[in-house]
Amino acid sequence: MLPEVLRVSADSKPKAVAGALAAVFRVRGSVELQAVGAGAVNQAVKAIAIARGFVAPNGVDLVAVPAFTKIEIEGEERTAIKFLVTAR
Amino acid sequence: MLPEVLRVSADSKPKAVAGALAAVFRVRGSVELQAVGAGAVNQAVKAIAIARGFVAPNGVDLVAVPAFTKIEIEGEERTAIKFLVTAR
Predict the structure, then answer these.
(1) Interface confidence (ipTM) of the complex
(2) Closest Cβ–Cβ partner in A37, A39, A68 for B49
(3) Among A32, A58, A64, A82, which residue has the least CB neighbours within 10 Å?
(4) Does A1 reach chain B within 8 Å, measured CB to CB?
(5) B5-27 pLDDT, tens per residue?
(6) Are B63 and B30 in contact (CB under 8 A)?
(7) Dist CA B19 CA B25 (whole Å)
(8) Whole-number Å distance between alpha carbons of A66 and A2
(9) End-to-end CA distance of chain A
(10) Packing angle between helix A38-55 and helix A14-28, nearest 10 degrees?
(11) pLDDT score recorded for residue A2
(12) Which of A9, A52, A63 to substitute to test the interface with B, most B CBs within 10 Å?
């Protein structure tokens, strides 16, 4: 089963995340990316831009809705950015 | 005349950028944000999330399309991220 939420870190490779994003999107019709910190948010944004190119030949126009969310990391509450990625 | 493109830096205040974004959106119906570097991209994403709340009471559901773009800074070409922000 493909995950609904893809966690992105500052070390994530945007092209690899884009591939996972496109794969989950094709199965589920939407994907959520989660990122904590500027480096991770930057990689997530690049991944979305790249994934748009992966699915565009199939007539899919991906858009992102960014939002704040709270997640727990090692017992501490952190503010994360989540991106809900869907087709327009 | 309001600018079509808002440049966001790592030092930009997300809430201030969100206010400018909402103001330009109300006049033009779309806005482009440009950011160079992870810190700037992060502030731009936060600004979009906040701006969604500013316009949502008017029935507007803002979405973002991230893309790569080249811009010139002090004579050098840099890769920037642009966000085209429109209503869904």
Answers:
(1) 0.94
(2) A68
(3) A58
(4) no
(5) 999 999 999 999 999 999 999 99
(6) no
(7) 10
(8) 22
(9) 25
(10) 60
(11) 67
(12) A63
Helices (H) and strands (E) in chain B, counts: 2, 4
pLDDT tens digits along A18-45: 999 999 999 999 999 999 999 999 999 9
The most distant pair of C-alpha atoms in chain A lies apart, rounded to whole Å, by: 43
CA distance B34 to chain A (A): 13
Beta-carbon separation of A45 and B88 below 8 A: no
Shortest Cα–Cα distance, A74 to chain B (Å): 23
Is the pTM higher than 0.90? yes
Using alpha carbons, list the distances in angstroms from residue B84 to A23, A72, B1, B2, B22.
24, 31, 19, 16, 13
**CA–CA separation, B48 and B62 (whole Å):** 8
Residue A69's CB is within 10 A of a number of other CB atoms, namely 13
